[in-house]
Every structure is written in structure tokens, then in C-alpha cells.
Amino acid sequence: MVLMIDGRSLETTEQGFLCSLExxxxxxxxxxxxxxxxxxxxxxxxxxxxxxxxxxxxRHLPNSRMFVKAIRNSLGAEKGSSRYLQxxxxxxxxxxxxxxxxxxKPPTCL
Length: 110
Prior knowledge:
By secondary structure, the chain is mainly α. It is 49% helix and 7% strand. It has helices spanning 26-35, 42-58, 64-75, 82-88, 93-100, and strands at residues 2-5, 8-11. It has a two-stranded antiparallel sheet.
């Protein structure tokens, strides 16, 4: 599939994940989020940047439990809770944080 943003053709998977990490920038993130019905706030950006940093540092994506735990360890207990993350990404925090962050689909997500 192809995602058109600002005159650029970005290749995506059938589920909407970017095929190339290098295609991502904040404008791409905004457009992907809008397509998913999410208007990004500072709280979203904090999780998106955390997830990108995590992936770049460790070269893998955590499962949902480890995702929440890693956020708790880095950003504090309030933000590292399933309820907080569910409010930001109602359809699935790990999956949609990764999608908007331009990362691959986590292997544990359907």
C-alpha cells in the first residue's frame, strides 16, 4: 500500500505500518494518527518518542507488558499504566504507538 503525505509516496504494510523507518517524521506521524482518529497531544508525543528511542536503542519491540513497564521505569508510574496508555491509544497502545512512531508492527499484536 502507499501513503501519500506532502507529495511523498510512502510504502506501508496492509495494516498501515511504514515499511521504512527512514520515511518517518513528525508530519508523517500526525497524518497516520489522524487516519486512526487520534489528534496528537504532548502526552502522545512523549510516548511516541519514547517508543522510537526504545526501538532504536534495543532494535526490537517489547510485548505489551514490557512496553508498559519500560514506560513506567522511564516516565513514571502515572504514565506507565495500561489505563493511561489506553486513553491515549484506545484501539491498542502498543500497536498504535508503534504505527504512529513509524515502527514495525509488534510481533505480539494481531
